[in-house]
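Sat 14:20. Reprocessing the chain from the morning session after the first attempt stalled halfway. Input below, unchanged.
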Amino acid sequence: MEKRVVVTGMGIISPIGIGVDENWEAICQGKSGIGPITKFDTSDFVSKIAGEVKGFNPEDFIEKKEIKKMDIFIHYALAAGKMAIKNSQLKIDESNADRVGVLVGSGLGGLSTIEKYYDILQKHGPKKITPFFIPMLIVNLAPGQISIYFGARGPNSSIVTACATGNHSIGEALRIIQRGDADAMIAGGAESTITPLAVGGFSSMKALSTRNDEPEKASRPFEKDRDGFIMAEGAGILILEELECALKRKAEVYAEIIGFGCNADAYHISAPSPNGIGASRCMEIAMKDAGINYDEIDYVNAHGTSTPLNDMSETKAMKTVFKDHAKKLAVSSTKSMTGHLLGAAGGVEAVYSVLAIKHGVIPPTINYETPDPECDLDYVPNTPREAKVVTVMSNSFGFGGTNATLIFKKFTG
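Finished this time. Tokens:
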């Protein structure tokens, strides 16, 4: 019999808050975390807005001498990991260290560190490059630092699949536990690339919103006047545990993770496949894995990036998958509030999905003013909705046509 896997802890840092409680309060208020970029001078940039994390002090989570050895995305990963472990009350010691693993990914890793030290190299030469440069920026130092801090000696790796990274990381962590290679996994995504190169690069692709005069209204998934996504930063981490282990230590179980699907569009480097064929297949794979029918899904936390192509494509995909149930289905994009956290998006949205089950509240899609005829589902416009939420699907799709879908269910024993 396949092992059952449950969520026993959560940690989150996002543009709308630090910690689970602060994030959920902001979600229930429909609060936007988007504002003018403060990390660099945007005078020459067409997009001047982003979802920056506010009020984060790495010293609250990391020893002062260690902070300078890590890029910001690792600060976020380690901080969210600590929150999640504390929330789960999972003790890692000699009795279980070899059975606890870490799988945390990032889309672009330490890009800010690369930009900073390239500048130093050009101005001052190679002798001024810190010896910590490489460990600061490589993606697998996020799970590496978490494992070192907690002494977690189980499977340790990173997945890099652009905006699907967080979902792939959680899904593969699920598989590691199911096949018996670990009893618990610290899993999710982290990102901090609100930098000149990243913003300039995405702007050149015409992917970013240029609604600079109204930052809080710029992220408007599924809405007629959407004009691109908004870059954001942060981290979302879950503690996944094999059910019997969680019950044995009397852990609080927030939800069960029952399904994971992943596939490829095999179509284009950045555009989704026509009519969302890849996305619809991915959702179907996840439901087959979960052993459920389409009409058992209560809520979809959509990828919903606020780009014209993605939102239309995802809507078509959901109509294909959910058939007559599509019109009854609650769908929302929390990116309307947080912006797009790239490699951290899946992790952050997994936390929101689990919280929707826990509290019986469906997050809204804010800034929904003018309906788009191409996007005609129930996007839970502007205000959260109390509802019986038993089963939640969370979608993440990335450049390169990579797709990942997670399904969470209320735990009833």
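The two ends are 16 Å apart (CA to CA).
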